[in-house]
Amino acid sequence: MASGRGTSGGKGQAKGGWLGQVAPEPNPHQVSFEFAPGRTPAGPASDEVAVAIEPELPGQTALPWGAPAGPPAFPRGPARASFPGSVVGTAFPAPAPHPPNPYDSVGDLSALAGLAADCRKCGLRPDCRGVVFGEGHPRARVLVVGEGPGAVEDELGRPFVGPAGKLLDKILTSVGFTREEVYITNVVKCRPPGNRVPLPDERAACRPWLEAQIRLIAPKFLVCLGASAAQSLIDPDARITKIRGVWFERLGLRVMPTYHPAALLRDETKKRPVWEDFKALRAEHDRVLGAEGPSGGATEEV
Predict the structure, then answer these.
(1) Cα–Cα distance for residue pair 99/101, rounded to 1 Å
(2) What is the per-residue pLDDT across 254-263, written as a single tens digit (0 to 9) for each?
(3) Distance from C-alpha of 293 to C-alpha of 290, rounded to nearest angstrom
(4) What is the helix (H) or strand (E) element at residue 57, kind and residue range?
(5) N or C, which end of the chain has less CB nearby within 10 Å?
(6) CA distances from 25 to 30, 32, 242 (A)
(7) What is the chain's mean pLDDT, rounded?
(8) What's the whole-number mean pLDDT along residues 129-147?
(9) pLDDT at 189
(10) How many CB atoms lie within 10 A of CB 189?
(11) Are strands 253-258 and 221-225 parallel, antiparallel or unpaired?
(12) How far apart are alpha carbons 130 and 143 in whole angstroms?
């Protein structure tokens, strides 16, 4: 866990941290196995539902920078116990195979980034400064995928460096990751005008770049930040409010959808759910890491 935490700022307040005001938690002894309305993805018959408590990190008893954590959250939605201590969503069928990727012959991220810089496959490129390809560890175990570059990202040519990006850095640090050991990118590499949501055809045009990044990085885990990423990588009909915090299996990866950091800047009540989701990611990451050993340090940044 990274250093630099502040001391407790009083009940329900993470002083100096990213969580802000923490909402009251339910009594941990009042346990119900009924899923709350609007929180359960439509899924198969109830005999496929397996309930398990999301694991806490070893020694993790408080929210970042000293605020009381409260009881662990119970998982949501239909599940199969594929991953110990976690929940796997079964709400959506596996997507149909995509056509062969035109970049399957590209052998490294630097070469792929060079090709992407000249891309004109959708209408976004003429109205932005340039392609924001991605950055991070070239063999990262965790791939973080957002929606698209914003104004600051478009100006600097780097993903998640604006206000939402600074919050993402704090979220990663709060569960023991650094920005340098993950890889960060977006479903579209060019900024949509006015920071609007990318259109389906724009996401589809950019998908081969993302699939090629996944192939070259070969991560173990993928985090979908927000609805656009979830709809691109989990299911076109996915609703982030219903599926966040539920594990899915896509492209041979464990996929965790959660809220986009920009949503947290607008609504602080979403901070705790996101932290719970990243704790679940950290716990599963450490389980796999313990079984397979460390991956080594970063060797390049694209």
Answers:
(1) 6
(2) 999 999 999 9
(3) 6
(4) none
(5) N
(6) 11, 14, 20
(7) 75
(8) 97
(9) 98
(10) 27
(11) parallel
(12) 22
CA distance 75 to 98: 31
Type of residue numbered 189:
K
| CA gap 181, 297 in Å, rounded | 8
What distances in angstroms separate CA 291 from CA 279, 280, 284, 287, one per listed residue? Answer: 19, 17, 11, 6
Residue 125: both structure tokens together: 């490129």
The answer on pLDDT for 209 being more than 90 is: yes
Return the SS3 of 133.
coil
Please name the amino acid found at residue 24.
P
Q: What gap in Å lies between CA 302 and CA 183, rounded to an integer?
A: 10
| Residue 130 identity (one-letter amino acid) | G
Neighbours of 70 (CB within 10 A): 16
Residues 19-63 pLDDT 10s: 664 444 443 333 222 223 333 333 332 222 222 223 333 443 344
Mean pLDDT score, 221-240: 96
Structure tokens at 231: 């709809």
Structure token pair of residue 96: 């149909």
Those residues with Cβ within 8 angstroms of residue 115's Cβ, 6 or more apart along the chain or in another chain: 103, 106
- Of 16-20, 116-120, 218-222, 283-287, the poorest mean pLDDT is in 16-20
> What region, left, alpha or beta, does residue 136 occupy, with left being phi > 0 and alpha being psi -120 to 50 degrees?
left
Burial of 154 (0-12, 13-18, 19+ CB in 10 A): buried
Task: Name beta bridge partners: 147.
Answer: none
Tokens 């990274």 found at = 2
Instruction: Output the CA–CA distances (angstroms, integers) from residue 164 to 146, 149, 169, 201, 276, in the order listed.
Output: 10, 11, 9, 25, 18
